[in-house]
Amino acid sequence: MNSICHVAVREIMQPPYLAAFLELSRTVFSMCAAFVALLGIGLLVAKDDISQARGLDKIVALTNLCFALPLAVFSTEHFCDASSLMKAVPSFMPWPLFWTYLVGVALISASLSIATKIEVRWSGLLFGIMMFTFVTMMDIPAAIAKGDRFAWALVLREMAFGGGGWVLAGTAMGGGRGLGKGLINVGRVLIGIAAIFYGIQHFLHPLGMPGVPLPKEMPPWIPARAFIDYATGIFLIVAGICFLLARKTRIAATYLGAWIVLTVVVIYGPVMIAALADPSTAVKVEGMNYFTDTLLFGGVILALARAATASAASSEMSSGVGST
Hints:
The chain is an all-alpha fold. The protein has a domain at 2-23 and 117-318. Helix content is 81%, strand content 0%. The protein has helices at residues 2-12, 15-22, 26-52, 57-60, 63-80, 82-85, 96-116, 120-146, 149-172, 178-204, 225-245, 249-276, 281-323. Helix 9 crosses helix 13, helix 10 (178-204) packs antiparallel against helix 11 and helix 12 runs antiparallel to helix 13 (281-323). The radius of gyration is 19 Å and the shape is globular. The N and C termini lie far apart (52 Å).
């Protein structure tokens, strides 16, 4: 995996690529600034959890960071590239520019709330509602019209994101009973469905970027591309079945979430760096979006691992109280 990073770094250090890397548009610069700012905030807030965790639980301790960082990056697009994004607003809705900016405000608000762990019960709940609104108003109609696998992959991605928001909210509410438990269960099912669908796609199309199966393929300089996709497919299908059956959810989500975060670092990271070295602003934005989209998917899965851990701890405490 180190060779992947070395190749990407060596390529961007060539003078033409370095010049392109430094010539950032306002949109790309803002996305990078948001990325760095939320990375710092998230690591500062999570440092105690990381130091106290053991093994793969250190990855689970990064749940809020993995979830919040992409939302901050996405929010900057809504402010800096509003004229393009407003075209996605359904034609029957008035004031498309207003809604574009409002979503940007909602995303940055949710990002800060989740990163700092302040009022996550509300930010997670409202973020989930927003994502399900997008699915109903835009994604499903587009998928029906297009009818291809990528469109449905986007539908399931947005539903998984919304489900992940509800898992965070449910965990913040206690998660053991009532609304909190219901939110976690809904999120678990939605994430499980997406995981199984994505896993199958990895076997049918084993050269795509791992995680969320979208059109971009892994660059030829990444070794063992098919093996990476098959391994990712196995993780996704097995974990998805565990999520739907509510069996071994914690361990399945921990391993799958850790694997997705690993692929983000060692595959999407170099791909994003190479994209930032490209002269085209569109390529730069695409590279950052692929990185952050997949990181958010990893955060969604880690949120499920954390919820299952909290539920197990609550059950143990209840058993302990009952036995005394």
